[in-house]
């Protein structure tokens, strides 16, 4: 049986890797890339069967460029996954916090652990591209005095020792990941969430009227994100996530939006995991 090829940003041990394993199991081939555009491109050209992409964090908010990538590469959202984020402070075995003079990690991880490092001002913070790749590089380079912030899985993979566990400032910290595929999904009445892109015609009060329509139809707007329409200065499109109980009501609402407000692109219809 052919293994599924799953594209992720980062290396084995990253949070994207965890989501891939939890969604597709251990028997998969991981295609790891340095950037999100490379992940999107690999799914679009058929190199990967599916892609995993972080889209928002409960503390830091939306990852704006990834909305554009989904749209630009004509990808569909197959599912979503909410991963609790635990940041582990790790280094080569046998060291203590006093031995550490520098910590490296993704800037978002450093930001989410700011309170911890105010208690240890002797440690210099250095931004890097990925959490797990820092752990790998420290292990391969046998770098003493240098720590990483990464996942417990990364510590196990690269033989690092967790000096301080769960150092994130806010413990209830989640990242929402989406599972992407190339093909458009077939409509299913069993779903209760949709990700859409709405391009509103340039009319006074258009957005307010659109939001009122959605609310009047008892559909929950769980996320709205604006992006500029490049070819039309000062006009915007909106990525909108809708949660609903009745699929027919949702479809009728989409048709009403198309009639009265502008173009609607369905990016994905799936089951809400929140």
How would you characterize this protein structure?
The chain has 274 residues and is of the alpha/beta class. Helices cover 30% and strands 34% of the residues. The chain contains 9 helices and 15 strands. The strands form 3 sheets. Strands 1, 2, 3, 4, 5 and 11 form a 6-stranded mixed β-sheet that branches. A 5-stranded mixed β-sheet has the order 8-7-9-6-10. Strands 13-14-12-15 form a 4-stranded antiparallel β-sheet, sandwiched between helices. Helix 6 (131-141) packs parallel to helix 7 (152-158). The chain is elongated, with a radius of gyration of 21 Å.
Strand share of the residues? 25-35%
Q: What is the string of helix and strand elements?
A: EHEHEEHEEEHHEHEHEEEHEEHE
Biggest sheet layout? 6 strands, mixed
Number of helices: 9
Task: Outline the secondary-structure elements.
Elements: E1 4-9, H1 15-24, E2 28-33, H2 36-44, E3 50-57, E4 61-62, H3 64-72, E5 76-84, E6 88-91, E7 102-105, H4 107-112, H5 114-118, E8 124-127, H6 131-141, E9 146-150, H7 152-158, E10 161-164, E11 174-181, E12 193-200, H8 206-216, E13 220-228, E14 236-243, H9 247-260, E15 262-270
Parallel strand pairs: 1-2, 1-3, 7-8, 7-9
Antiparallel strand pairs: 3-4, 3-11, 5-11, 6-9, 6-10, 12-14, 12-15, 13-14
Helix pairs in contact: 6-7
Structure in a nutshell:
With 274 residues, the chain is an alpha/beta fold. The protein has helices spanning 15-24, 36-44, 64-72, 107-112, 114-118, 131-141, 152-158, 206-216, 247-260, and strands spanning 4-9, 28-33, 50-57, 61-62, 76-84, 88-91, 102-105, 124-127, 146-150, 161-164, 174-181, 193-200, 220-228, 236-243, 262-270. The protein is built from 9 helices and 15 strands.
């Amino acid at each position: 049986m052919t293994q599924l090829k799953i594209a992720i940003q980062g290396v084995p041990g990253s949070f994207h890797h965890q989501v891939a394993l939890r969604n597709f199991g251990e028997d998969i081939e991981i295609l790891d890339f340095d950037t999100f555009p490379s992940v999107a491109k690999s799914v679009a050209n058929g190199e990967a069967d599916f892609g995993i992409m972080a889209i928002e964090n409960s503390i830091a908010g939306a990852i704006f460029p990834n909305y554009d990538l989904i749209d630009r590469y004509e990808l569909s959202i197959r599912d979503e996954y909410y991963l609790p984020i635990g940041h582990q402070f790790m280094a080569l075995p046998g060291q203590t916090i006093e031995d550490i003079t520098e910590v490296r990690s993704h800037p978002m991880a450093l930001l989410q652990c700011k309170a911890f490092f105010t208690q240890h001002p002797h440690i210099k913070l250095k931004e890097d591209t990925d959490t797990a790749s820092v752990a790998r590089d420290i292990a391969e380079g046998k770098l003493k005095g240098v720590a990483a912030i990464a996942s417990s899985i990364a510590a196990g993979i690269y033989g690092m020792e967790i000096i301080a566990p769960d150092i994130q400032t806010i413990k209830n910290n989640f990242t929402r990941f989406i599972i992407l595929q190339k093909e458009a999904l077939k409509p299913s009445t069993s779903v209760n969430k949709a990700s859409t892109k709405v391009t509103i015609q340039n009319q006074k009060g258009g957005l307010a009227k659109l939001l009122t329509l959605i609310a009047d139809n008892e559909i929950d707007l769980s996320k709205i994100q604006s992006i500029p329409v490049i070819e039309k200065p000062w006009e915007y499109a909106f990525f909108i996530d809708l949660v609903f109980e009745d699929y027919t009501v949702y479809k009728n609402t989409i048709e009403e939006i198309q009639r009265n407000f502008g173009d609607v692109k369905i990016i994905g219809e799936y089951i809400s995991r929140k």
